[in-house]
Design a protein that fits this description.
Blueprint lengths: L2 E5 L2 E4 L4 E8 L6 E8 L6 E6 L5 E3 L7 E6 L4 E6 L8 E10 L19 E6 L1
Parallel strand pairs: 2-10
Antiparallel strand pairs: 1-3, 3-8, 4-5, 4-9, 5-6, 7-8, 9-10
Protein backbone atom coordinates (compact mmCIF):
# COMPACT_ATOMS: atom_id res chain seq x y z
CA UNK A 1 0.00 0.00 0.00
CA UNK A 2 1.00 3.59 -0.54
CA UNK A 3 2.50 5.21 2.51
CA UNK A 4 3.61 8.81 2.86
CA UNK A 5 5.17 10.11 6.05
CA UNK A 6 5.86 13.78 6.63
CA UNK A 7 8.48 15.17 8.96
CA UNK A 8 10.26 18.42 9.72
CA UNK A 9 7.44 20.63 10.93
CA UNK A 10 7.53 22.88 13.92
CA UNK A 11 7.47 26.45 15.14
CA UNK A 12 9.34 29.22 13.40
CA UNK A 13 9.29 33.00 13.53
CA UNK A 14 7.97 35.03 10.64
CA UNK A 15 10.67 35.53 8.05
CA UNK A 16 12.37 32.31 9.00
CA UNK A 17 12.80 29.05 7.15
CA UNK A 18 11.74 25.47 7.59
CA UNK A 19 12.13 22.34 5.48
CA UNK A 20 9.60 19.54 5.33
CA UNK A 21 10.36 16.04 4.13
CA UNK A 22 8.15 13.22 2.90
CA UNK A 23 9.24 9.59 2.85
CA UNK A 24 7.37 7.43 0.35
CA UNK A 25 6.89 3.70 0.04
CA UNK A 26 4.54 1.16 -1.53
CA UNK A 27 4.72 2.36 -5.14
CA UNK A 28 7.18 3.20 -7.89
CA UNK A 29 8.04 6.64 -6.66
CA UNK A 30 9.81 7.79 -9.83
CA UNK A 31 6.64 7.31 -11.91
CA UNK A 32 4.49 9.77 -10.00
CA UNK A 33 4.26 13.47 -9.53
CA UNK A 34 4.41 14.37 -5.86
CA UNK A 35 2.73 17.25 -4.15
CA UNK A 36 2.53 19.24 -0.97
CA UNK A 37 -0.84 20.39 0.30
CA UNK A 38 -1.95 22.28 3.38
CA UNK A 39 -5.06 22.92 5.40
CA UNK A 40 -6.09 25.32 8.14
CA UNK A 41 -9.16 25.11 10.39
CA UNK A 42 -12.29 26.23 8.60
CA UNK A 43 -10.68 26.20 5.17
CA UNK A 44 -10.52 23.81 2.25
CA UNK A 45 -7.43 21.88 1.36
CA UNK A 46 -4.99 24.02 -0.56
CA UNK A 47 -2.49 23.07 -3.21
CA UNK A 48 1.01 24.27 -2.38
CA UNK A 49 3.56 22.70 -4.70
CA UNK A 50 4.14 19.85 -7.14
CA UNK A 51 7.26 18.11 -8.38
CA UNK A 52 7.11 16.00 -11.51
CA UNK A 53 9.42 13.17 -12.49
CA UNK A 54 11.88 15.67 -13.99
CA UNK A 55 12.07 17.46 -10.64
CA UNK A 56 10.37 20.47 -12.16
CA UNK A 57 8.29 22.42 -9.66
CA UNK A 58 4.90 24.08 -9.88
CA UNK A 59 3.69 26.37 -7.12
CA UNK A 60 0.61 28.12 -5.90
CA UNK A 61 0.66 31.89 -6.22
CA UNK A 62 0.76 32.31 -2.46
CA UNK A 63 4.10 30.53 -2.07
CA UNK A 64 5.75 31.13 -5.43
CA UNK A 65 9.21 32.57 -5.00
CA UNK A 66 9.41 31.55 -1.35
CA UNK A 67 9.03 27.77 -1.39
CA UNK A 68 11.01 25.19 -3.33
CA UNK A 69 9.93 21.61 -3.91
CA UNK A 70 12.41 18.91 -4.89
CA UNK A 71 12.64 15.15 -5.03
CA UNK A 72 15.24 12.44 -4.70
CA UNK A 73 14.11 9.33 -6.53
CA UNK A 74 16.90 7.20 -5.08
CA UNK A 75 15.92 8.07 -1.53
CA UNK A 76 12.22 8.11 -2.39
CA UNK A 77 11.72 11.46 -0.74
CA UNK A 78 10.24 14.82 -1.63
CA UNK A 79 11.07 17.96 0.30
CA UNK A 80 9.57 21.40 0.64
CA UNK A 81 11.96 24.21 1.49
CA UNK A 82 9.99 27.08 2.95
CA UNK A 83 11.60 30.48 3.18
CA UNK A 84 10.43 33.92 4.25
CA UNK A 85 7.62 32.29 6.16
CA UNK A 86 4.53 34.29 7.01
CA UNK A 87 1.93 33.73 9.74
CA UNK A 88 -0.59 32.86 7.03
CA UNK A 89 1.62 29.91 6.09
CA UNK A 90 0.68 28.25 9.36
CA UNK A 91 -1.18 25.05 8.57
CA UNK A 92 -1.05 21.29 8.62
CA UNK A 93 1.05 20.26 5.66
CA UNK A 94 0.50 17.02 3.79
CA UNK A 95 2.45 15.08 1.24
CA UNK A 96 0.27 13.70 -1.54
CA UNK A 97 0.50 11.29 -4.46
CA UNK A 98 -0.05 12.95 -7.81
CA UNK A 99 -0.73 11.75 -11.36
CA UNK A 100 1.26 8.89 -12.84
CA UNK A 101 3.45 9.27 -15.90
CA UNK A 102 1.83 8.45 -19.25
CA UNK A 103 -1.66 9.06 -17.95
CA UNK A 104 -3.85 12.11 -18.50
CA UNK A 105 -2.59 14.94 -16.36
CA UNK A 106 -4.65 16.58 -13.65
CA UNK A 107 -4.80 20.24 -12.60
CA UNK A 108 -2.72 21.63 -9.78
CA UNK A 109 -5.45 21.54 -7.18
CA UNK A 110 -5.78 19.63 -3.94
CA UNK A 111 -8.25 17.07 -5.28
CA UNK A 112 -5.69 15.84 -7.81
CA UNK A 113 -3.64 14.30 -5.00
CA UNK A 114 -4.37 11.16 -3.05
CA UNK A 115 -2.97 9.01 -0.28
CA UNK A 116 -2.08 11.90 1.96
CA UNK A 117 0.21 11.34 4.86
CA UNK A 118 -0.91 12.07 8.39
CA UNK A 119 0.20 15.65 8.06
CA UNK A 120 2.58 17.79 10.06
CA UNK A 121 2.00 21.10 11.78
CA UNK A 122 3.82 24.24 10.74
CA UNK A 123 3.31 27.29 12.93
CA UNK A 124 4.72 30.67 12.03
CA UNK A 125 4.74 33.19 14.85
CA UNK A 126 4.83 36.96 14.56
Amino acid sequence: QVQLVESGGGLVQAGGSLTLSCAASGFRFENYRMGWLRQTPGNEREFVADSNWWNSGTYSDSVKGRFTISRDNDKRTVTLEMNTLKPEDSAVYYCGLGPRRFTPSKPYIASSYTNWGQGIQVTVST
